[in-house]
Write a structure and sequence with these properties.
Length: 280
């Protein structure tokens, strides 16, 4: 008597029938598929034992069901991308989700290195400084009327230049005679003292501190012999090529201020009318 040779699930005889051997015993084909086959994520049908099965991210597919959701191209042997759980061939993905390089006009492929600014996209190697034409990469840049400049090129092209050293002013600076100066370049022509934030004047367009201007160019007070600069609202009196500070213009005898008063010259001195009439 022959030994029984039955399906491990339905118990029907497997003599003369196709079967599949497993660790749990032999199965007829229908029982094997219903027990072990995966369900296709696309068509929801079982993937039979004799079908080529493809697996992606915990999902199973018939070979014929593994295709681009837009153009229906088979992706079995093609590169593809998954977008929001949908499978797309590279062509469809690029058409739907990639952008166009603002420099070369070519497609910026998904996953490639790119730069985005102001709603535009560039290949990394196409985003160049408009001055030196070197890739800007992750460096700081300055946009200007549709162009993009690295900081050195922008400063060289657009930044104001110091009236003294002709180098660019990148920050700060002062204005003298409607021209920009580095703070460290605006110094007294006489003593080289920095003049930024200080009171100063000029002679033949050259800047001078108050002290140097007074010593070099200002008339001297006939009384105290100190310079009369007239800066800071200081007032003075002049008479016959002689000059006095307001505070120094007084009678040589009684020291009465002569500012706004009549006076009488007496040699190198000036006298009030009272002292002049009193005699020597």
């Amino acid at each position: 008597m022959s030994e029984a040779f039955d399906c491990a699930k339905c118990s029907e005889s497997l003599y003369g029938r196709k079967y599949i051997q497993t660790d749990n015993g032999p199965y007829c084909v229908p029982c094997y598929d219903s027990t072990f086959a995966n369900t296709c994520a696309e068509c929801q049908q079982l993937i039979g034992h004799d079908s080529r099965e493809l697996f992606y991210e915990d999902r199973h597919f018939h070979e014929g069901c593994f295709r681009c959701c837009r153009c229906q191209r088979s992706l079995a042997d093609e590169p593809f991308t998954c977008q929001d759980s949908e499978l797309l061939c590279n062509d469809c993905y690029c058409s739907a989700f990639s952008s166009q390089c603002s420099a070369c006009g070519e497609t910026v492929m998904p996953g490639s290195r790119k730069l985005e600014y102001g709603g535009q996209t560039w290949h990394e190697h196409c985003f160049l400084c408009s001055g030196c034409e070197q890739p800007l990469g992750s460096r700081s840049f300055v946009p200007d009327k549709g162009a993009h400049y690295c900081v050195p090129c922008y400063e060289n092209k657009f930044a104001p230049r110091c009236a003294r050293c002709s180098k660019t002013l990148t920050q700060g600076g002062v204005t003298y005679r409607d021209q920009p100066w580095h703070r460290e370049c605006l110094v007294c022509t006489g003593c080289q003292t920095p003049l930024a934030g200080q009171q100063f004047t000029s002679r033949d367009d050259d800047p001078y501190c108050v002290a140097c201007f007074g010593e070099l160019f200002a008339p001297k007070c006939s009384s105290c012999k100190r310079p009369i600069t007239g800066l800071g609202g200081g007032k003075y009196v002049s008479f016959e090529d002689r000059h006095w500070h307001h505070s120094c213009f007084s009678c040589a005898r009684c020291s009465t201020s002569l500012v706004g008063q009549g006076f009488v010259p007496d040699g190198d001195q000036v006298l009030c009318q009272g002292c002049s009439q009193a005699g020597p």
